[in-house]
């Protein structure tokens, strides 16, 4: 009998504590692989900060919510977000050393350098068994954009990619040396990674344009659980219209809730009957944005904010929607809400660039609207509400997303190929 495949997965938070897209897809992938594949076991290790967990004397490790014995938390409060640097390498070495010795992983899959830091990559390379292979999924643009990975200028314009002068205009308090040191540390760390993954072709292209080696980055799309049946479309009375729009996601500036509310207000002013439901929490948002959001909500009489929701709440809330809107003002990468909407057979209206536009084929899976342009969004939403044949056409042509089993199989295939003897891969970043 062959020995089991052992996997260590690192994520920058646990989805039961902070249900962001990266955390959700990382844990779903881990559970799908470990629960659905004989001969595979491992550990899902999620980093948390002081805002979510108090320190435990003598250890950085804690039990994870959810009751799974193969999931744990590691408390890492000493993190520099600009340099993506974890200062407490001593504590990490003292914690990860015994853990790696006990688990002896064949694959170490890092789902984000946040909280763990670039130093952890070198530490894992040094402490892990010689046979172990390191995988890093590039879930967003953090590694190439020091402004929180948004690829947005301070004026809110889409940024094509990093350039020293442009980056200094966005972050004038940082010196040119800081930007160069950030780039060098990321380059050194990623050169020791055995495989880099991107959930979208668009994200890969942005990294390649920034100087990363295209040969190192494989595109492996995200997925969502599809074992549940799609929720039924809401029944319409005779003469009724498909004019119910729904936003799902965290309420913040970058996700575009203000754009959706402005578009809704414009529709109401011109007499276009519709409803806009916003589903998502507002935690950790600055007071200035919350004041803008409250004012925009008050100015949009057809809009309602229904607050935070859980995965269990999603089908019922999706059931009340005809359309799902993704008005993000940045490129996005591979938003899970789009996959969830397509699974439930809801056409999607999203921005016309980036990873979101890659997921939504205009005229087949939904419609594109101009990023950050409320007037343009209002025009597209008016068309959606007023053309009943359009909704039916899209519902009949949209493509259901792959399930987690497909995503798990693709990752397992990659892991096994990495473990076969063969030549070394090229450097991650062009010199």
UniProtKB/TrEMBL annotation:
Instruction: Extract the InterPro entries matched here.
Output: Glyco_trans_4-like_N, Glycosyltransferase_grp1
* Every Glycosyltransferase subfamily 4-like N-terminal domain range: 85-226
Which SUPFAM superfamilies does the entry mention? UDP-Glycosyltransferase/glycogen phosphorylase (SSF53756)
Q: What's the name of the protein?
A: Glycosyltransferase family 4 protein
Family annotation (PANTHER family): SULFOQUINOVOSYL TRANSFERASE SQD2, TRANSFERASE
Q: Which Pfam families does the UniProt record give?
A: Glyco_trans_1_4 (PF13692), Glyco_transf_4 (PF13439)
